[in-house]
Amino acid sequence: MAIRVLLVDDQPLLRTGFRMILEAEQDIAVVGEAGDGLQALDQVRALQPDVVLMDIRMPRMDGVEATRRITGPAKDGPAKVLVLTTFDLDEYVVEALRAGASGFLLKDAPAGELVQAIRVVAAGEAMLAPSITRRLLDKYAGKLPSGEDPVPDTLHQLTEREVEVLKLVARGLSNAEIAADLFVSETTVKTHVGHVLTKLGLRDRVQAAVYAYESGLVRPGNP
Fold it and tell me: Which pLDDT does position 147 carry in this prediction?
């Protein structure tokens, strides 16, 4: 079945460009468009898309709040959100990720990267370059808790190796890089990451990285 995509951007020209790119793919179908967050909520309820390509800065309701409502506890469907931004260090990107977005993409990204991002997010993975994860969390660490509070009880559910893996995820390492660092296979790393997400009740490695910072397990600027 084709991946159902909803385009959300207050610039009609950009929506048209994205539509042309995505509709050229046999496994992707653009099911609707919205010009702001409020329209996006209505469209998500009506169209039940798999992926919402979400602009951040829009009138009436911005992409962060729309993302929070689409992916929150009262969500109306299985839609995952891929945030669009003009700048790779947009301060709202961190807020969007914490609100439930599965990743973000620059608006000037190549067509192939956009298509791949849609597929990755639809498959339940996070679309966020490891280096960007670290840069974002380090740059906007002031928005996160200081880490002076006690380590949350949920962290104690993890094994020693799982804690190691979580730290490396927070540092922005890919599965292959973690495998090389720990001298294990990529399959083993994927298993550990899966256990971490399940035990901590997290959706993907982006949320895991944010959790590691918020819990005080990792400090901004330090390994």
Answer: 46
Give the integer Cα–Cα distance in Å for 88 and 131: 11
**Residue 132 · residue 88 · CB < 8 Å:** yes
Q: Residues 24, 79, 122, 8: what is their CA dihedral angle, to the nearest 10 degrees?
A: 40
Strands (E), 70-137: 80-85, 104-106
- Amino acid present at 176: A
Mean pLDDT of the chain: 83
Angle at the Cα of 25 from the Cα atoms of 23 and 26, rounded to 5 degrees: 105
pLDDT greater than 60 at residue 141: no
Average pLDDT on 4-31 reads 94
Sign of CA dihedral 153, 155, 157, 159: negative
Query: Torsions phi, psi of 83, nearest 5?
Result: -80, 140
Answer yes or no: pTM beyond 0.90: no
The position carrying tokens 């979580």 is 166
Backbone phi, then psi, for 181, in 5-degree steps?
-70, -40
Alpha-carbon span 156 to 117, nearest angstrom: 33
130-139 vs 205-214: helix axis angle to the nearest 10? 30
Distance CA 32, CA 79 (A): 13
